[in-house]
Design brief:
The complex is a heterodimer. Chain A is 53% helix and 14% strand. Chain A contains four helices and two strands. In chain A, strands 1-2 form a two-stranded antiparallel ribbon. Chain B is an alpha+beta fold. The termini of chain B are far apart. Chain B is 52% helix and 16% strand. The longest helix of chain B is centred in the last third of the chain and has 35 residues. In chain B, β13 and β14 form a beta hairpin. In chain B, the strands form three sheets. A six-stranded mixed β-barrel of chain B has the order 2-3-8-5-7-6. The chains are: A alpha+beta, B alpha+beta. The interface between A and B is medium-sized, with 19 and 17 residues.
Chain lengths: 111, 862
């Protein structure tokens, strides 16, 4: 199926969305990514990825309530869908499988 | 204190570009981020970073127009049209393939013929003053001459105020030119007046156009000529030695760009005409000069015509009764509209241009008809789709748009494909002699415009009708009939008319190519009255003539060479026209005149009817003559025996020694004319060598060796096979023949594909009928007959239209030839049979496939 593949950054954003559960939008996702990976990412790139993920059906967006701090603007919150969750799981399985297939490597560089 | 705010202008920019859908979310996020930045980094940096972020958000999918587009119904329906078109093509690959092939063939052939026509019609179009430049010719309407005497130009310029400038061009054919060690054979140059560059548009690279040819010794050369002799050196002021009778050393005073191919007077170099003495330049003697006049704007030509004509009459003491006229031909009409006596190049024929263009148009129409038929037929299957679309609320105009849209996609696709074919195939097309057409888009961008025009016309022709028909279906009818499609009868008449048109055009094309083929074959195998197969020609000039006798004797020693003859001209080249009279008469008879030695008849196998060949020795100051039958009839109408009579021609008196059989020394376009042969022994124009067929290559090597031996300073003599020369005379027809064949094959392919798909459709629609007939015991041949009958009726109708049409067209074409084949009914029967077979085979094949199916398969869904 088209779009079932996740890019590295897409996976990262999707994971973060899952972690944040009910409070995932660009700003919080950027914070969360920073705290986990110490990567400073721009809002626009996260937004682009979110839009793409929504198109693929891995996240669903809905409008949140009005708050004071954003100049009175509502925020659009993102939530992972079951398809998104399955996709994350599948990605992890592939990785686990490949890790277990790896022979014991000795990193003896002196030889 | 108010909350710090991001810059206003950048906010406005965001609001301007960002679509409604994302704006609130994006702006909110950015504000939140901004507030945080203000606390962390201070206001200045935060505002700056805010601007950066807004630019980062600037992406296609967030833009207003893009969102609008996606939600727009037009975009949606466009996307839908693409999808439906694609699916339809994929679903029925054969039909899609046939439709596209049809269009591609039609468009390609049409573009080819259009480019050809434009190329031919564009001759000499590069001269800025082309509307005011005329070539002066003379003669009566039966035998117009392209050339004039030298005096005509200066006379017209002096006498006529409306003549602004004039230039004369004296051809210098076939001479050698030398610079130091480099010696080349130069085929085409002219002596010209200095005004030539003010009249005609040639692009100067070096030198001054106004003065380049003023000095008697001056010479203007083309770029490629310059490259050949001077390489990268600057040729200006250098000298070239021309090995012609007068004026040897020439100084280069100008270099021009190569003369465009579309020119009726192609040349590689020009030299000043002023080496000729002045009184000679004003003389009215021989007709060998091309004279061009530039008229004042809007000047009337009639006055000049009559004044020049009167001067002819005065100069030659002509009778008023003799119809001589001055012919003024616009320069850009010379190539296609004139083929006069003494024409410099083998000119084209405007009728061939029209014929080819019409054939191209025919093919386009046929392919277009096929396309229309196929589209309608395919569309009938889509009645259900139309019904459904209408039921869910599509209006008729929307459906028309849908079908037109599908059509446009197919047309564009085919158009691009044929453009590609032309571009990729242009080196192949250039192989055809004389067809060096600018066919690739790269060298001829105007093809794009032409294609666009063709596509628009095609869209109107082939898009409108099917769209109208298909959008007309009524949902109720379709659902009631339950078949999901409508029968062909609903659109019967127009469609049948289209098929008949197509068949008629095919008949005309097939018959046309058969007749063209037979006529050409006839001309190439016709007995010309002399032997043309084992003769080679070479041109003789002053240098060769000096040692001609030695050369001839050495050649005769070569085994395989049977005889060698010298003459002023040879069959296939122009033979001069002069007057001759019986001694004692004062009335001249006009005749072609060939100067030749006593070996000429032997070399060409020309039969002597009465008398004997030229003698080997003739007393000083005397000569001998031979007459062909036609000249005998003209000079001795009372049936006297001409042999032994004394004739006088340009002051030379001589005895008639023989009457020879008429032989066709020109092409079969023209009838044999009266011919006088005069014994002559020096200064030949041509040498002819007759050889044995089996030793061709040895003969050529020997000829080369002998020429090297006798003329060590000269380049090797170039030879030409006589039959090649004759093939060249028919090159226009040969070209026509090749092209007509291609067109004919394409037409047949198109016809087959058309019949094939219509037959498929018929068989499909009548599948149940066929099955039931089979169950009830109908046999196969009967079924095939049943299904093909419809086509036979159409074919008969088409024959009624096509056969007379073909007859008139071919009769008209044959008119041009002095010797024609009879239009035998054979070609007509043949083409009818051919089409009949094509129809039977292609429809029979389809029917056979349908009829041999197991009836159970067809009927089980009932």
């Amino acid at each position: 199926m088209k779009g079932s593949h996740l890019g590295e950054f897409e996976e990262l954003v999707l994971l973060t969305t899952a972690i944040l559960n009910d409070n995932a939008y660009t700003v919080t996702i950027a914070d969360e990514i920073l705290s986990h990976t110490e990567r400073s990412v721009t809002l626009s790139s996260i937004h682009t990825v979110l839009v793409r993920l929504e198109k693929k059906g891995f996240v669903q967006s809905y409008m949140g309530g009005v708050t004071q701090e954003r100049g009175g603007r509502r925020r659009r919150l993102y939530k992972i869908t079951s398809a998104g969750y399955a996709c994350l799981n599948a990605a992890r399985d592939v990785r686990d499988q490949m890790w277990s297939a790896m022979p014991n490597l000795s990193f003896d560089f002196s030889a | 204190m108010k909350d710090p705010l991001p810059p206003k202008w950048i906010d406005r920019f965001l609001e301007w570009y960002c679509s409604e859908y994302y704006l609130e979310e994006v702006q909110g996020d950015l504000y939140e981020w901004f507030e945080r930045r203000v606390k962390r980094d201070g206001l200045r940096k935060a505002r700056f970073m805010y601007a950066i972020d807004v630019f980062r958000y600037f992406k296609l999918f967030r833009l207003k127009p893009f969102q609008k587009l996606i939600n727009n119904s037009k975009y949606l329906s466009m996307k839908n049209i693409f999808k439906i078109t694609y699916r339809n093509l994929i679903r029925d690959k054969i039909s899609g393939f046939i439709r596209i092939t049809n269009l591609v063939l039609g468009i390609t052939i049409f573009m080819l013929s259009l480019v050809y026509a434009r190329y031919e019609l564009g001759y000499d179009g590069h001269h800025v003053k082309k509307d005011r430049l005329y070539r002066v010719g003379a003669g009566n309407p039966d035998s117009p001459w392209a050339a004039t005497p030298l005096g005509v130009g200066p006379f017209a310029l002096d006498q006529m105020p409306e003549v602004k400038r004039m230039t004369r061009m004296v051809p210098i054919r076939n001479t050698w030119a030398r610079r130091g060690e480099d010696l080349f054979y130069e085929k085409s140059g002219f002596e010209a007046d200095s005004s030539i560059f003010e009249m005609f548009s040639y692009e100067f690279i070096r030198g001054n156009p106004k003065t380049a040819l003023v000095a008697p010794e001056s010479m203007v050369i083309t770029e490629s000529f310059a490259k050949k002799y001077f390489g990268v050196e600057n040729p200006m002021g250098q000298t070239i030695e021309l090995l012609i009778d007068r004026g040897e050393k020439r100084v280069i005073t100008g270099v021009i760009k190569d003369v465009p191919k579309q020119s009726h007077l192609p040349f590689d170099y020009l030299v000043s005409i002023y080496t000729l003495p002045d009184d000679y330049l004003r003389s009215w003697r021989n007709f060998f000069v091309y004279t061009y006049l530039e008229f004042e704007e809007g000047a009337s030509l009639e006055q000049t015509k009559s004044v020049v004509k009167d001067e002819y009459v005065a100069q030659y003491n002509l009778d008023e009764s003799e119809t001589i006229a001055t012919i003024l031909t616009p320069v850009n009409k010379i190539h296609l509209y004139t083929n006069h006596e003494k024409e410099y190049a083998d000119n084209g024929n405007v009728y061939y241009v029209y014929i080819l263009f019409c054939i191209g148009l025919f093919v386009l129409i046929i392919s277009c008809i096929n396309f229309i038929n196929l589209t309608v037929i395919k569309g009938l299957d889509r009645a259900k789709e139309v019904g459904l679309r209408k039921t869910v609320g599509a209006s008729r105009s929307q459906l028309i748009m849908q079908f037109l849209g599908e059509n446009t996609i197919l047309l564009l696709f085919s158009g691009v494909l044929s453009l590609l074919i032309l571009t990729v195939g242009s080196p192949f097309f250039k192989e055809f002699p004389g067809l060096e057409l600018p066919l690739s888009v790269i060298e001829n961008p105007s093809l794009l415009l032409i294609l666009l025009a063709v596509l628009i016309v095609l869209q109107l022709l082939s898009g409108l009708y099917p769209s109208l028909v298909l959008s007309r279906f009524r949902p109720a009818e379709i659902i009631k009939s339950g078949s999901g499609s409508l029968s062909l009868k609903k659109v019967g008449f127009t469609r049948q008319a289209l098929i008949v048109t197509q068949f008629s055009l095919s008949i005309i094309l097939i018959i046309g190519s058969l007749i063209v083929y037979r006529q050409l074959n006839f001309m190439q195998t016709q007995d010309l009255g002399f032997q043309k197969d084992q003769v080679v020609l070479f041109k003789l000039n002053r240098q060769i003539n000096e040692k001609y006798v030695t050369f001839r004797n050495r050649l005769l020693d070569v085994p395989g060479i049977k005889s060698v003859a010298g003459s002023s001209s040879v069959p296939g080249y122009r033979v001069m026209f002069e007057g001759v009279r019986v001694v004692g008469d004062d009335e001249n008879t006009g005749s072609r005149l060939l100067l030749a030695d006593q070996y000429f008849l032997e070399t060409y196998d020309i039969e002597i009817l009465d008398g004997k060949n030229f003698s080997d020795q003739v007393p000083e100051g005397r000569t001998e003559y031979m007459l062909n039958q036609l000249l005998v009839q003209e000079m001795f109408p009372d049936g006297q025996n001409p042999v032994g009579k004394q004739l006088i021609q340009s002051g030379d008196t001589g005895r008639v020694v023989a009457v020879i059989r008429d032989f066709n020394f020109k092409s079969l376009h023209e009838e044999v004319e009266p011919l006088l042969m005069k014994r002559y022994i020096e200064n030949w124009g041509y040498g002819s060598v007759k050889f044995e067929a089996k030793s061709t290559s040895e003969m050529l090597t020997a000829l080369e060796a002998v020429s090297q031996e006798i003329y060590p300073d000269l380049p090797t003599i170039e030879v030409e096979f006589l039959n090649d020369r004759f093939a060249q005379l028919y090159s226009a027809e040969t070209k026509l023949q090749e092209i007509v064949w291609i067109f004919c094959v394409v037409t047949i392919i198109l016809t087959i594909s058309g019949i094939f798909s219509i037959a498929t459709y018929n068989a499909q629609k009548r599948a149940k009928e066929i099955a039931i007939r089979k169950v009830l015991g109908g046999d196969l041949p009967e079924l095939i007959k049943q299904l093909s009958m419809g086509f036979i009726y159409l074919l008969i109708t088409a024959l009624l239209i096509g056969l007379p049409g073909a007859y008139f067209l071919t009769a008209w074409w044959l008119q041009d030839f002095a010797y024609q084949i009879d239009i035998s009914p054979l070609s007509f029967i043949l083409s009818a049979v051919l089409l009949f077979v094509v129809i039977m085979v292609s429809s029979g094949f389809v029917t056979l496939r349908a009829a041999s199916r197991n009836p159970a398969d067809t009927l089980k869904y009932e």
